[in-house]
Design a protein that fits this description.
By secondary structure, the chain is mainly beta. It is built from no helices and 7 strands. One of its GO terms (biological process) is nitrogen fixation.
């Protein structure tokens, strides 16, 4: 699924899923640089993000896979 990852003015990360019109903060990351790991959203969704360089600029739309469906 397409997911837009962005960082707000305070530095907090969030994920927006356009197909569901859902925007949730990212509350935890399995991988410190986020890319190539699993992130957990505030609503409990777990998303597997593709591997990318640690210095990838945000906002960015990626293909993520929802885990635990």
């Amino acid at each position: 699924m397409k997911v837009m990852i962005r960082r707000d003015a305070a530095g907090a990360l969030s994920a927006y899923v356009p197909k569901k019109d859902l925007e949730e903060p990212i509350v935890s990351m399995d991988n410190p640089d986020m890319w190539g790991g699993v992130v957990t959203l505030a609503n409990g969704w777990r998303l597997e993000l593709p591997a990318m360089a640690a210095d990838t600029r945000l906002p960015l739309t990626v293909d993520a896979r929802r885990l635990g469906e």
